[in-house]
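Example (one chain per record):
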Amino acid sequence: MATTGDTIQSISAYLGVKCGKITYDGPEKIPVMKGKTGTRKGFTTILKHLARAAEKQNLIGENLGEKAVVDQWLEFKTCYIDRCGAEKDTNQILKELNTYLSDKVYFLSHRVSLIDLALYYTLYTTIKELTFYDKQKYLHLSRWFNNMQQSNSIRQSSLYITFSKTQLYSGSAH
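Predicted structure:
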């Protein structure tokens, strides 16, 4: 999975704003961004600042309910995904994300939000390393990821990841 700093840099590039150098504070490695307008500390704080600087507050949510969903998933990323060590932990996280996306196009149902961007950049390497079987196993997550990567401005210079449009595996023998 991508480092927190790499994810922040990618989102900054997508938004078209400069974020400067990202450093890490303390043993918890909390990201810190120093800029002309001051110092921002913490993944969520930095991302929200970047969205506001780009005048794209809609990425944070348009009402209190949407803002709560964005905060919830940014917290999930920080507390669970970033601390994921073992392969079984990664599989559990992918399973949870897959379940959540079973009836949604994006994390806010109908449009890209800050959490979609954060998870896309964070999970890119993990998704890239999945086999076709695993991509099929996490069908909803794969659909979401494939949808996200269709935008050149989101994908940036990353390679396009191939997904099969045909079901390759069936039954429980695989």
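Caption: The helical segments are 4-15, 43-53, 64-81, 87-100, 114-129, 132-137, 139-149, 152-155.
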